[in-house]
Amino acid sequence: xxxxxxxxxxxxxxxxxxxxxxxxxxxxxxxxxxxxxxxxxxxxxxxxxxxxxxxxxxxxxxxxxxxxxxxxxxxxxxxxxxxxxxxxxxxxxxxxxxxxxxxxxxxxxxxxxxxxxxxxxxxxxxxxxxxxxxxxxxxxxxxxxxxxxxxxxxxxxxxxxxxxxxxxxxxxxxxxxxxxxxxxxxxxxxxxxxxxxxxxxxxxxxxxxx
Length: 210
Fold this sequence. Notes:
Elements: H1 48-70, H2 75-87, E1 90-91, H3 92-99, H4 103-115, E2 119-124, E3 127-135, H5 141-159, H6 163-191
Helix pairs in contact: 1-5, 2-4, 3-4
């Protein structure tokens, strides 16, 4: 939910460490295994662009966790609230599909957001049999406060680019977003829906209070 100016959505969708950058040595068009200094000696090959991309993705993920915690939300609640506010409202089934949670876990997540005053359940105007979860107007002050620093700082970064360069940056965002979502589905399919954590992970491991 860390927006760029005027609502660029990042959410908490951080790739795992090791995600190859476009054009890195792990993807098509890489540098053929040379290190960032151009060497081919005994040291492990590195690609400076891959390192930059990993550092960016890690920073986005860390910001998502910090913002969720500041707003008093678990990471999954933060992500769900981001999707609800971005789309204007989602059904429980749509939230379950987007988060990868079971139906029961999604219901409990919505219950927690509702008790916290962030969302409400309403009848779908187009189909009264459906229940839509939408944000409660005026309830997002804590969220807006949490994402404010990122919006301001990213706005400063983008201001240094020309309009044409910004168009290219946002074109990348529009293409990379579905790529990350497709990769997420690949992970879920391969894992069979299993969720694993390190043995030392506690209730705050996902970045926010339960």
